[in-house]
Amino acid permease (Aspergillus kawachii), 317 residues
Amino acid sequence: MALESDNIEGRIYVEGSQNVEKAPKGLVAPKYMGTIRDQRDMSALGRVQVLRPGSNTEIAEEIKDASETLPKAMMSAVGVNGILGFIMIVTLCFTLGDVNNILQSPTGFPFIQIFYNTTRSYAAANTMAAILVITLTASTITEVATASRQLWSFARDQGLPFSSFFAYVTPGWNIPLNSVLVSLVVTALLSLINIGSNLALNAVISLTITSLMSAYILSIGCVLLKRLRGEKLPPRRWSLGRFGMGINIASLAFLFPIFVFSFFPLTKTVDAHSMNWSVVMYLPMVGFASVYYYFWGRYQFIAPVALVKRDIDLNDM
């Protein structure tokens, strides 16, 4: 339900009688988009299939009671996937066999050779490989969905070039269709690079780790800085309590070495194939973002949409 108000710029979107969202004028930004908005709750275990726990945050605005549901989902994902991953690694170590034989597999994929060496059955190996492919396909779908929401939310706050295009929510669909299609097309085009050059694809993929580490370091670092300054953090329903600062420091101590070494090549003698090209991809990306923000972005960017909870008498509005 959309209502116009004289005392709040833009539009107000009301979900029930409690949640009110202030959106930038001219942008349609419903609180819950897509099919998820019709759900009363989202299971904490319903997101364990995502590739990384942080993928949850990009769809926060589509989750009911996100301030409590999201932390539960992220912690559940880490716990469940951590246990299953440990079991998988131990099993793999005991069934790996000859490493050189696996690396020289005629299939071109060592994991398929591992499946065959373990089962000695083409049917079983194909079945296990199919399960892995289906799982990765599902992960790709969730990644495209979360990437499109991240693109939409940043564009909604006027933080990107062509923000009005990316922030548009298609009437009747209740999803940012433009952002979804752009994310899907870019993902498909990047996958086609592998046809021409596996080296070029690896150069693009190498940017993933450094970008993720940068995002984690910046977000955790900002929270830690506020704690060190004694500044009050915003009200939240999920809190780390007195352990928060220690966990933040431990997280940064863990992330910084990974960030630094993610730029290193795997071998001492480096050529075009063994070179880690992430630094070549990372620095231009950071440079472009910095230049854009300094000359244009800081004059257009607005604070993220604020969700205000208050009692509203709809009959008086």
